[in-house]
UniProtKB/TrEMBL annotation:
Family per similarity comment: Belongs to the ABC transporter superfamily.
Name of the protein this chain belongs to: ABC transporter ATP-binding protein
Annotated membrane topology: Multi-pass membrane protein
Transmembrane segments: 48-68, 88-108, 170-187, 193-210, 278-297
Chief location of this protein within or outside the cell: membrane
GO cellular component, one term: plasma membrane
Domain ABC transporter: 368-602
Superkingdom of the organism of origin: Bacteria
Domain ABC transmembrane type-1: 52-334
SUPFAM superfamilies: ABC transporter transmembrane region (SSF90123), P-loop containing nucleoside triphosphate hydrolases (SSF52540)
Organism: Cohnella fermenti
Length: 611
C-alpha cells in the first residue's frame, strides 16, 4: 500500500507530509530504559537455570566481599593489640582464599551472562529480521537499505556488552549495596545516614546526564546509519561512480557523513568527561565524612580503629554501584538509543495484512479482474482512477503505454505488494483481500527487467523458485530456459559462484536464470515486466524461446516497451494516464491508426519514398 492510505482506503498523512518513515502517522512514544530491560528479561527468562546459577554466584561474591573487611577489622582490633602472631597466617590465607574464590565466581558468572547475552541477542536479531520480512513493500520504499542494515547489525550488537557484562555488574553491585547498607546502619546509623546523604545527588546527576547522553547516542546511531547507507550505495554502484570519474565527489560525501558521526561521538565524550568528575567529587565527599566523623567517634572512644578501616572498605563497596554506573552509563544509554531504533521497526505494523479468516487460494485458472480500482502513492500522484481490466485465463495480455501510465503499478497490485484505495481485484472470483497472501503469491511468477540474484551459486539461485527441487529438476528448468548451455560451459557448472547481484554473468545470462527460477516455481500466473528491454537481439531471441515454454497454458501479463515482443499477445491494452485508451490484438490496433499505431511507427518507422 502507498504511504498515504490506510488499509480501509482512508487517506492518511504520509512521509512527504511531515510524518516519520516507520509509522503510519501515529506518534510512537520512545522506549524507556525500563522497557528495554523488560524486553531483555522476556527473551532471557527461558534461560532460568543459567540465570539462577549466575544469581547464586552474585550472592556468594557479595558474601566474600563482606567477609574481607571483617578480617581486616579483626586483625587491627584483636590480633595486633594482643600480639597473636600465630593467627596472622590464617588471616593471610583467608584473604588469598577469598581472592581465589572471587576470581572463580566472577569467571563463572561472567561466562554464564555472556552465554545468556548471546542467546538474547540471537533472539533479538531473529525477531527483528522476521518482523522486517513480514512488512510490506511500501515500508522498504520509505526506508533506506543502509539504515535498516544498521538496525539489524550495529544496533543489536550494541546491546551485547550491556547484556553480557553490565547487567551482571549492576545486579552484583546493588545486591551488595543493600546488604552492606543494612550492616553499616547496624554498626553506626549516624555515620551511615551522613554517608547516604550524598547518594541522592549522585542519582540526580546520573539522571540528568543520562538523558542527555541518550539523546546524543541516538544521534551517533543515526550518523552510523547514514555512513552505512552511503557505503552500501557507493559499493553497489561502484561501476557507475568510476564511469563518471566521481570518486572524489563520493569521497567528499562520505567524509561529510563520517564527520557528522565524529562530531556526535565528541559530544558524547564531552558529556561523559563532565559527568565522571562530579561523581568522583561526591564519592570523595563520602570518604571525607567517614574519615572526619569516624575519627571524631574514635577519639571519643565510641568506635575502634578497625571498625573505621572496615567502614572505609564497606564505603568502597557501597559506592561501587554509583561508580560503576558512572562508567557504564555510556553503555546503558547507548543501548537505550539502539533499543529505541530497534523498537521503531518492531512497532511498525504492515499496511498489507490478511483477514483473520482469510481463505487459502486453491489452484487457479488465472482469470483476473480489476473492477473500479483506484490507486495512488499519494493524494497528489493518483496512478489509477476507476480502472477496469480483465485478464482471461490461459491467455497472454500485454500492457503498453508511456512511462508513468500505470503499467508496473498494475503488475504490483496483482501479487498484492500494494492494496488499492478503492475498488476490487479478483482472481477466479476470489477477492485478493479474502485469501492468504502466501497462497496468492505461491501461484504467481515474476520476471522483471530488474533481475535480483543472490551471492551464491547458479544452482542456488535457480532453486530459489523451489527450495525442495532436486538437481535433475534444476537442470531441467535451466534447459527449458535456454540456460543449460552457458551454465555447463562454466568449470563449476551449477556450482559456479556468480558474485554479488550476479556480476559475473551477462544481462542475458542473468535473465535466463531468472526465467529458470520462475519455471521451477511452476506458477499459474506469470508477470513479465520489461523482461527483455535491456537485452541485445541474440539474447532476446534465446529468452523469447524460453518464455514461450514458460507461458504455455498459463495466464500471463506482459509489460513491454518493445512492441516486437507482444505481437503474439492475445490481447493488448494501451494505457494513458492510468486509463485504457484502446485494446485489441496487434493487427486490430494497427488498423485503428490510434495510439498503438503511433507507438509502433515510432519504433518501426516506414522508409520514405525514394528520391
Amino acid at each position: 500500500m502507498s504511504d498515504n492510505y490506510s488499509s480501509n482506503g482512508a487517506f492518511r498523512p504520509g512521509r512527504g507530509m511531515g510524518m516519520g518513515r516507520f509509522g503510519t502517522g501515529e506518534k510512537v512514544k520512545p522506549a524507556s530504559v525500563a522497557g528495554m530491560f523488560g524486553r531483555i528479561y522476556e527473551h532471557a527468562r527461558r534461560e532460568w537455570p543459567a540465570i539462577a546459577a549466575a544469581i547464586g554466584c552474585v550472592i556468594a561474591i557479595s558474601l566474600l566481599e563482606f567477609i574481607v573487611p571483617q578480617l581486616t577489622k579483626y586483625t587491627i582490633d584483636r590480633l595486633i593489640p594482643e600480639r597473636r602472631l600465630g593467627e596472622l597466617i590464617y588471616i593471610g590465607g583467608g584473604v588469598l582464599g577469598a581472592a581465589v574464590a572471587l576470581g572463580a565466581l566472577n569467571y563463572v558468572s561472567s561466562s554464564l551472562m555472556a552465554s545468556i547475552g548471546q542467546k538474547v541477542l540471537y533472539k533479538f536479531r531473529n525477531d527483528l529480521y522476521r518482523h522486517m520480512q513480514s512488512l510490506d513493500v511500501s515500508f522498504f520504499d520509505r526506508n533506506r537499505t543502509g539504515d535498516l542494515m544498521s538496525r539489524v547489525t550495529n544496533d543489536v550488537s550494541i546491546l551485547q556488552q550491556m547484556i553480557s557484562s553490565s547487567m551482571m555488574q549492576l545486579f552484583t553491585d546493588f545486591f551488595t549495596f543493600g546488604a552492606i547498607a543494612l550492616y553499616m546502619l547496624w554498626i553506626d546509623w549516624r555515620l551511615t545516614l551522613l554517608l547516604l546523604a550524598t547518594f541522592p545527588f549522585m542519582i540526580l546527576t546520573t539522571r540528568l546526564f543520562g538523558r542527555r547522553m541518550r539523546s546524543s547516542f541516538r544521534k551517533v546511531q543515526e550518523s552510523v546509519a547514514d555512513v552505512s547507507d552511503h557505503l552500501h550505495n557507493s559499493l553497489t554502484g561502484i561501476r557507475l561512480i568510476k564511469s563518471f570519474t566521481a570518486e572524489d565527489y563520493e569521497s567528499e560525501r562520505f567524509s561529510e557523513r563520517a564527520r557528522r558521526n565524529m562530531d556526535a561521538n565528541i559530544r558524547v565524550v564531552r558529556l561523559r568527561a563532565a559527568y565522571e568528575p562530579i561523581i568522583d567529587l561526591l564519592n570523595f565527599l563520602g570518604l571525607a565524612i567517614v574519615l572526619v566523623f569516624g575519627a571524631w567517634l574514635a577519639i571519643n572512644g565510641e568506635m575502634t580503629i578497625g571498625t573505621i578501616v572496615a567502614f572505609l572498605s564497606y564505603l568502597r563497596l557501597l559506592q561501587n554501584p554509583i561508580r560503576h554506573v558512572s562508567r557504564i552509563i555510556n553503555t546503558i544509554q547507548q543501548s537505550a538509543a539502539a533499543h529505541e531504533r530497534i523498537m521503531e521497526v518492531m512497532n511498525t505494523k504492515a499496511d498489507i495484512v490478511e483477514k483473520d479468516n482469510a481463505d487459502t487460494l486453491p489452484p487457479v485458472r488465472g482469470h483476473i479482474v480489476f473492477r473500479d480500482v483506484e490507486f495512488g502513492y499519494s493524494r497528489e500522484a493518483e496512478v489509477l482512477s476507476r480502472f477496469n481490466l480483465e485478464l482471461e485465463a490461459g491467455q497472454v495480455t500485454a500492457l503498453v503505454g508511456s512511462s508513468g501510465s500505470g503499467k508496473t503499478t498494475i503488475a504490483h497490485l496483482i501479487p498484492r505488494f500494494y492494496d488499492p484505495q478503492a475498488g476490487e481485484i479478483e482472481i477466479d472470483g476470489y477477492s485478493l483481500k479474502d485469501v492468504t497472501i502466501a497462497s496468492l503469491r505461491e501461484q504467481i511468477g515474476i520476471v522483471s527487467q530488474e533481475i535480483v540474484l543472490f551471492n551464491g551459486t547458479i544452482g542456488e539461485n535457480i532453486r530459489y523458485g523451489n527450495t525442495n527441487a532436486t538437481e535433475e529438476e534444476v537442470a531441467a528448468a535451466a534447459r527449458a530456459a535456454n540456460a543449460a548451455a552457458f551454465i555447463e560451459a562454466f568449470p563449476g557448472g551449477y556450482d559456479t559462484q556468480i558474485g554479488e547481484r550476479g556480476v559475473r554473468l551477462s544481462g542475458g545470462q542473468k535473465q535466463r536464470i531468472s526465467i529458470a527460477r520462475a519455471l521451477l516455481k511452476n506458477p499459474r500466473i506469470v508477470i513479465l515486466d520489461e523482461a527483455t528491454a535491456s537485452l541485445d537481439t541474440e539474447s532476446e531471441q534465446h529468452i523469447q524461446e524460453a518464455l514461450a515454454l514458460l507461458l504455455k497454458g498459463r495466464t500471463c501479463l506482459v509489460i513491454a516497451h518493445r512492441l516486437s515482443t507482444i505481437r503474439q499477445a492475445d490481447r493488448i491494452y494501451v494505457l494513458e494516464q492510468g486509463r485504457i485508451a484502446e485494446s485489441g490484438s496487434h493487427d486490430e490496433l494497427l488498423q485503428r491508426r490510434g495510439r498503438y499505431s503511433q507507438l509502433y511507427e515510432m519504433q518501426f518507422p516506414q522508409p520514405g519514398p525514394a528520391i
